[in-house]
Amino acid sequence: MPELPEVETVRRGLEPVLTGRVIARADVRRPDLRWPFPPRMAERLTGVRVTALRRRSKYILADLDSGETLLLHLGMSGRILIHAADAGRAMLGEYVHAHPAPETHDHVVLDLDDGTRIVFNDPRRFGAMDLMPTATAEQHKLLAGLGPEPLGNAFDAPYLAGRLAGRRTPMKAALLDQGIVAGLGNIYVCEALFRSGISPRRLAGNLSRARIDRLVPVIRDVLSDAIAAGGSSLRDYRQTDGELGYFQHSFRVYGREGAPCITEGCGGTVARIVQSGRSSFYCPHCQR
DNA sequence: CTTGGGTCCTGTGCGC
DNA sequence: TGCGCACAGGACCCAA
User: Fold this and answer.
1) Which of A167, A201, A220, A278 is catalytic?
2) Cα–Cα distance between A62 and A26 in angstroms, integer?
3) Among the four residues A81, A184, A193, A206, which has the most C-beta atoms within 10 Å?
4) Which residues of A263-288 are buried (b: 16+ CB within 10 A; e: fewer)?
5) Known catalytic residue at A172
6) Phi then psi for A207, rounded to 5 degrees?
7) Is A2 a catalytic residue?
8) CATH number of the domain at A157-282, please?
9) Where are the domains of chain A?
10) pLDDT tens digits, A140-195
């Protein structure tokens, strides 16, 4: 799935297109994704103006002038594509926008008042959409238990040390736990642990304070680097404009099983192990 | 409380 | 060419 950097890239792509626009038409083409859509979702989206686009963890939040906020999660395979209005036809004054017909996994299609079309496509349907009052958005069931944003001020070494203390779970699982820190996924946990020389198997409660001090800025750096690169393009993830992100070329361990460790003078080989059902890539020689 | 495992769903790439 | 299996960026829910 898109992890935090990919979701932030999508948010940045949507922001200039959606902010200030009115949703002229909402085509909700199935009753659910991972969960049922909220009642009357199409009606509640129609005729409302988008006032802001925010991100919390891997969720995109679109504030609406109806007093509600649209919550959007891309799951593992969710994509959002933006189709610009057909300029040629608009010039003729017809305001007929020749968008291509929806494809197989186009589940929700939003047509904006300027003719732009926003398409939510998600083959695996692990994604989600919901509507809630803007005033209580943070109390939404999916958001209430989230830990701090890794790029925010609340995520620091004392906080992380407190959350890891006494934990018998491997570091891999601890950093994937959205209640400890929100937004990391399989790729960026692997990359952050490699950059900080920590084994994904290291028990969270056994990590020294000095190493926690080092880990926190490394997490920030990995995510910042990835956002700057427009996220990672794997399989079907693309930016909203169809462009590919290119951070996947900067992976140091993810997907490199059997390849030599890139650490100067290490000489180790990248290994893949399975932890809580997910692949962990790491160098057993320089990650301890 | 924490922790591990199963589950949802479709698509792709590999070995045979 | 076809078939079955492993694997894929997430996260909820439940049992122990």
Assistant:
1) A278
2) 15
3) A193
4) beeeeeebbebebeeeebbbbeebbe
5) no
6) -85, 125
7) yes
8) 1.10.8.50
9) 4-139, 157-282
10) 999 999 999 999 999 999 999 999 999 999 999 999 999 999 999 999 999 999 99
d(Cα A246, Cα A240) in Å, to the nearest integer? 14
For residues A105-111, average pLDDT: 96
Tell me whether the CATH fold assigned to A4-139 matches the one assigned to A157-282.
Answer: no
| Residue A193 near residue A199 (C-beta atoms within 8 A) | yes
Mean pLDDT of A30-35: 96
Q: Is A54 a catalytic residue?
A: no
The protein residues having a beta carbon less than 7 Å from any atom of strand B are: A 34, 76-77, 104-105, 123-126, 167-170, 173, 204, 235, 276-277
Q: Which two tokens stand for residue A267?
A: 């000489």
A233 confidence band (pLDDT: 50, 70, 90): confident
Set A2, A5, A150, A170: catalytic member: A2
- Nucleotide of closest approach to A6 (CA, C1'): C9
Q: How far is CA A271 from CA A199, A259, A260, A281, in A?
A: 11, 8, 10, 6
CATH of the domain spanning A4-139, picked from 3.40.140.10, 3.20.190.10, 1.10.150.170, 3.40.50.720: 3.20.190.10
